[in-house]
Amino acid sequence: MTTQRTKIAELIRQRPPIHRLPAELLVSILDLAILVHPNCHQRKWQLAQVSRRWRDIILDNPIFWTTITLTTLDRSAIRTHLKRSGNLFLDIVIKVEETPSGIFDTLQYRLLPIVMPHVHRWRSLEVFDGGGVTHDNSLWTIGEYIEDHIEEFPSLKRAIIPGTASTAYPNFLSPAHVPLLEHLELDECQGWEDFAPPSTLKTLKLNFEECAPHYPSFPYLIPTQTLTTLSLSGGHTGWSLQPNSIEFPVLETLILVIGGSSDFLQAIVAPNLEHFEYRPCYCSLHHFL
């Protein structure tokens, strides 16, 4: 009995294994635990309350303050993130979970102006229609506001923009404005005649507006030299393409969820393709009524 009590006392005195981890490894674990949570800001403060060591690591390490979700943070919290993130790159997130008109004034006049002076640090811009709000061009006013107030995103590598049902390709996503862009996702887009993303793209995901008119030669405008992943979805495209006329030298993944894709498949040459998915997609009947 005495031996058992002594052993228990020794175990109690010992630090738990999680507290014996090197700081670098603990930072990686905490960072992952925060990133996978739907509310990163809330999760960060929950973990900071576990112990003094965890709190000090989270408060003192800039990596935990680089994601700024504008629609869930108040002005004070945004400024705290900007200060604690030091000079690291920033991930700007906008999640629309209510009627868009109810948040645009807040974004445009109170929140976006706080992060605009740090646009040189923006690594990603992600806009999510989390509430399933009907696209009525309201979301696109975010892009219009950004385009009117920012001339260039010198560090932006990732952009996800929904509700882009515009008759022209967004100018703020042109090569002159996003020279380093590698990942681009556009929802409710059209087969624009002026489609001109930067040639640095590695991943391109386009969800076309259902049965929207397409520029017949639209695929020829897709940058091909560095693209490794291409995903196209939406209604019938109506493209007019020549066989073996579009070469994707490093394309590895191709996902097609579109109608009338046979011309596109015959037109592309992708010698390094490793993964291919295809599902037909048809316009809803009401578009023809």
TrEMBL record:
The segment(s) forming the F-box domain are 18-70
SUPFAM superfamilies annotated for this entry?
F-box domain, RNI-like
Note the superkingdom of the native organism.
Answer: Eukaryota
* InterPro entries attached to this UniProt entry: F-box-like_dom_sf, F-box_dom
UniProt name for this protein? F-box domain-containing protein
| Lineage per the UniProt record | Eukaryota, Fungi, Dikarya, Basidiomycota, Agaricomycotina
